[in-house]
Every structure is written in structure tokens, then in C-alpha cells.
Amino acid sequence: MNSRAMTARPATVVVLVALFPCFPCLIGCNRTDSNQKTPTSETKRALVREIADKYGIECDFPNAPFWIAFDQRPITGDPIERRNLNACLSVFVEEFEMYPVSLAAKSGLKRIVFCRDLAIAGEPKGGIAVAQTGTMYLEVPQDSVQERHHRWSIHHEFFHLIDRSESGFDARWCALNSPDFAYGSRLLVGGDSESFTVTGDVEGFVNLYATRSSREDRAELFAALVMRSADVQRVCGKDARMRAKTLLLKEHLAYLCPEMSEDFWSTIGRVKRTTSSVKGD
User: Fold this and answer.
1) Do residue 183 and residue 155 come from a single domain?
2) How many helices (H) and strands (E) does the chain have?
3) What is the pLDDT of residues 11-48, one digit of tens each?
4) 10 Å Cβ neighbour count for 152?
5) What 8-state DSSP symbol labels residue 117?
6) CA–CA separation, 3 and 9 (whole Å)
């Protein structure tokens, strides 16, 4: 399981009422709510249903607080506010539809859970990937800053599901680091907030968060390539270790999924993102 924080905030106490009580799936959901039945809302829902059908996944929106026991560290979350639903759907469609269906199949992704106040053992998280169940939990953004983090988290957590690397690949990856580097040895003053950007402050890494572990290193680089490809190219121009990692990551992805070729990365570099209103329509 892998996780990350959206933004630094105080830990919250969640009152848990049940284990996924009445956990509706967006696909085929025919709830009659006059406040939600606007053409724009229905269009966005239809797009998400198309994406879900295309990739063979479920997009779930809990309607009550949930508690999931996992590895003695409970995953908890609350329902999202209706006013944020439309923005949530827009961001998800915009970010996820770029991926080949075959890559999603290789990842084992089965379900995406959208919620707020996502946490592990009370520690706030922006995203959690549970490979054992093929589930991604995503914190829905409440403002424009969190929206940018949310977009990054979608790709970061998705890669954690993809990254079931055998020991041989991990060894190749770690060999690209400086001989005197050890994962987890860097002081992360800002905690998980050291993510969501490309700084190149540490040789061979997109940011400080990537220095936590080899898996976080790869997930951060992948998210950066999708979200900030020009910044990654800039760092690669002066950082040979980063350049080598980028080439190895792309090579590995192309091996897992031939559609993840240079054509894919060229297309990603031209993506123009919109800024959704977190308050919905």
C-alpha cells in the first residue's frame, strides 16, 4: 500500500458509522436528485461512465463515512460534498482518459474511490493505492491548489499499481543513484508536501519526496512526466542520473505496455489542462 498527503493539515477525528454502508457505484446509478440533474452534471456523469466502461473499473462515491481495516492501519474517509462533484468528475476524465486501456489492465486497477478527509490511521492523505484489491482512494480537492495536487496524485497512485517491479528491475533502478545515496536518509521538512512539483534539488530526483524509497521515486517521476514533462526535460538536461532514470522508466513502461511508446509521451507533452471550479457548476 502506498499513500501521500494532499496538503499539510491537522489530523481530524472521523466518526465512523459502518464499513462501506451503502457504497454506490457511479456506473448505472439512477439516483433521483433534482439538484444534480442539470445537463452539465449529466454530461459529466456520462463521460465518467464511458471511462469506467472503457477501462473496466468502478468509480465509487461513498454516501457515508467509511472505515477499511488494512495492515493494522485503518483507511478512513468521508463522502464528498455535492458542490464538488462536478469538478471532481471533470478532473478525473481529463487526467485518466489519456491512458491506454491495456496499461490499466496491466495495473490491476479495479476501483477508484473518491472521498474527502482521506486518512491512514488518522494521518491525512491525498491518495492511497492498495495493490491487493486494485483500489485507488483519492482525496477530492477543495480549492484550486488542492486541484493541482489531486491531478498529480491520480498519476502517482496509478503508477503504484503499475509498479509491481521484480527485484531485478528495482536493482537496476537503485544502481542509477549516487553511490553514497540511501533512500530515506534525507530530511523532509515539509513532509509529503515536498511532492507535487519538479525541483531537481537532489541529484537524480524530481523532488525531495522521491528520496523516500525507490517506489516513491518512480511514482513521482512518472507523475512529473505526465504533469510537468517540460520541467523534467529541463532537469534531465543538466542531471545525467535523472536522464538515465527517465529513459529506464519509459523503457520499462513500453515493455509492460507497447502503447506507452514515445508517441504517448509526445502526446502528453501537448496536453492543455483546464482549471475546474471546485464548487461545481
Assistant:
1) no
2) 9, 8
3) 333 333 333 333 333 333 333 333 444 435 677 678 78
4) 24
5) E
6) 15
DSSP class of 198: -
- Is 111 in a helix, a strand, or coil? strand
CA distance 190 to 51: 35
CB atoms within 10 A of CB 274: 7
Residue 157's SS3 state is helix
Task: Tell me: do 129 and 148 sit in the same domain.
Answer: yes
Q: How many residues does the chain have?
A: 281
Question: What gap in Å lies between CA 150 and CA 112, rounded to an integer?
Answer: 13
Q: How far apart are the first and last CA of the chain?
A: 34
Q: Are residues 50 and 114 in the same domain?
A: yes
181 and 251 both lie in a single domain: yes
The answer to whether the CB of 8 falls within 8 A of the CB of 196 is no
Q: Are residues 155 and 99 in the same domain?
A: yes
Element (H, E) at 128: strand 127-130
> In whole angstroms, what separates CA 77 from the centre of its chain?
16
Residues 188 and 235 in one domain: yes
- Domain range for 146 is 2-29+40-162
- pLDDT digits over 135-178, tens only? 999 998 877 778 888 999 999 999 999 998 777 899 999 999 99
- pTM score of the predicted model: 0.82
Contact 74, 120 (CB under 8 A): yes
In terms of C-beta density within 10 A (0-12 exposed, 13-18 middle, 19 or more buried), how is residue 84 classed? buried
**Residue whose grid cell is 536518509:** 185
